[in-house]
Amino acid sequence: MNYLGHAFLSFGDAEILTGNMIGDHVKGKLALEKFPEGIRKGLMLHRKIDSITDVHPAIQRAKVWFRQDYGLYSGAILDSLMDHFLANDPQFFPSSHDLLQFSEKTYNQLETQQAYFPETFKQYFPYMREHNWLYNYRTLQGMQRSLNGLARRAAHIPPIENAYKTFIGHYYQLAQCYYEFIDDIVKAVKIELNPNSL
């Protein structure tokens, strides 16, 4: 999952959301100690989500279509693509308005936690909000921008155009992989946040 997925899987808690969203920018156990407990919980949740995603059979199957061209970058590409299918999932976002409201609420919650942003996240959070990255995962044009952004951040990734072509060419198979995956990750996160929920 990418930013939308991590935001969604924070289930409305501002501190968990912050940790979940900045997770890629905080490395190692020692780095966790400077954060409040709720943000630490979000950081650990981010790592848990990533580890579950990486080994899920549906995600492993989806990576095959990208592995020849992109090797280890297949996982990062799939993270963005799963956000597209989440953004269009009527179970969670019945309309574009629902996704827009969720996106604005997420930005507002993050704004209250800016003191805890790592420098890299602090630098591009304004662009995330201004260009509404979370909402724009919903559209094909938004996905092109998302993949182009990944290409800018990953210096050695092969030309990203083929990833978009593969995404379109395998759209319905990728959607099926998403639907096989999403209920499992939602259940796993709910158990992680509330072990007594079963």
Automatic annotation (TrEMBL):
GO terms for molecular function: [acyl-carrier-protein] phosphodiesterase activity. Pfam families: ACP_PD. Keywords: Hydrolase, Lipid biosynthesis, Lipid metabolism. InterPro entries: ACP_PD (IPR007431). GO terms for biological process: fatty acid biosynthetic process. It comes from the Bacteria. PANTHER family: ACYL CARRIER PROTEIN PHOSPHODIESTERASE. This is DUF479 domain-containing protein.
